[in-house]
Design a protein that fits this description.
two-stranded antiparallel ribbon; FN3_dom; 93 residues; FN3_sf; 4-stranded antiparallel β-sheet; mainly beta; single chain
Amino acid sequence: MILSWRRPSKLDPLKYKISYGAHKEFYDSQGALQRLPLPPVEVFVDSERTEYSIDSLFPFTSYQVNITAVPPDESPRPAAKMIVTTAMAGEQQ
C-alpha cells in the first residue's frame, strides 16, 4: 500500500507520524470464526517526504491508517484518518 499526502499549507511540519493497525476476522476450514488482532505500528518520516509504502499486508484485511503532521513544538494535532481494505489473495489492483 502506498500512502501519499500533501504538505499542510498553514504548518511547517517537523515530521509526519504514520500509524496503522488492523483486526482481521475470518472463518477457518472448520467454519469457526477466528480473530487475528494485528498490533499497531507507528513510524515517523522526514518532513520532506509526502509518500510512504507499507509492505507485507494481509489479504482481505481492513487497516486503519492515521497520518499526522507533527509541528516543531510537537504539540498534538488531528490526524487524517482512513480505512483501507486490501485485495483478496492473488488479486492485484
